[in-house]
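Sequence in, structure out.
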Amino acid sequence: MPRTTVTTTTYTGEDGHKRTQYRTTIPKQLAETFDMEDTELEWKMGGASDKLEIQIIEE
């Protein structure tokens, strides 16, 4: 499975506070397999300190 990187962007909001946005991509194989175009995701802490859990929200 391919690896992806997390990138950050820092900006100042209209209220004058600095904010940081974190962004990553989903490997194409996973996105196509789960038909993820325009899909909402729920992120959770995983069972270990270095694990994440991502759930597809189907409404």
